[in-house]
Specification:
The protein has helices at residues 14-19, 52-76, 78-86, 88-116, 123-126, 130-138, 179-182, 204-207, 228-231, 237-253, 256-273, and strands at 4-11, 25-31, 35-42, 148-154, 157-163, 167-172, 175-178, 209-214, 220-226, 279-286. The protein is α+β, with helices and mostly antiparallel strands. It has one domain: PPM-type phosphatase domain (Phosphatase 2c, domain 1). The chain has a five-stranded antiparallel β-sheet with strand order 1-10-9-6-7. Strands 2-3-4-5-8 form a five-stranded antiparallel β-sheet. Helix 2 (52-76) crosses helix 3 and helix 2 packs across helix 4. 43% of the residues are buried.
Length: 288
Amino acid sequence: MRNWAVDTISIQGYAHKSAGKECQDHSVSWQNKYYDAAIVCDGHGGDKYFRSDAGAYLACEAGKKIISAFMEHFWKDKGFRIKFFSSEKVRDEMFEQLIKAIIQEWNQSVAADFNAWPIEADPRFTALTDAEKTDLQRENSKAYGSTFIAAILCEGFYLILKLGDGNACILRDQTVEFAEKRSETLRDTQLQFNLTTSLCSSMADREFRYAWVKYPLNSVKGIILTTDGVINSYTSETGYLRFIHNIFSSYIGSDIKSAHEELENFLHTLSEKGSGDDLSVAVICRRK
């Protein structure tokens, strides 16, 4: 969209650097005449999920492909748009089909990767316990486990799709708030005690959360998505939200390249001083 900026950054966490472990985060953003979009995905990273870096990458690719096709159909097909706006029930059915399509695309991509390189040939597989090996042989996709969070922002409405422990924040005027504050449908009581939902779950389609929000023109200034390593680097939600506000201010007030470099440099410091985790940030914001 005109006068909007989009950007994404994913950095290898301090703890992963120290351990010689690859970055498990991936992110992607893109712009269209009618909308802006971004996705961040966080591979689980434990020994059992030894291909979750690939899982997160494939999740970003699957999400971009399916969301792009959905949005292209939305803007080209007037009848589809009429149905979309006709009722909440119809929209919910459309979003549920969108989510199922993303999951299916991810599973197909994971299957292709697995067939090209069976996990039994992966030295990381041989290091697992017998029980873990049996579990992965029964459900290969678990090795690729990843969270998923996407935002699509149009003039007049936005859509957030969320699976797992990522966060979405909205900028309204000069106020930053969690997207969940405006949309209870995004809340997930399962996300406690370091547990997370995942694309590799057989119940992923039911565990996805989504929110479609219609807003007055110019009242929403932007959306920022982050993986859980970012909020876990702060001792309070207040500190995290202050950081998100600073990101918005930087991208609104500076050129995108300078804002990107400043944020990327800070994220390395934040990981070292904070969670030690890989960190991802996706920004969609209205420029001055």
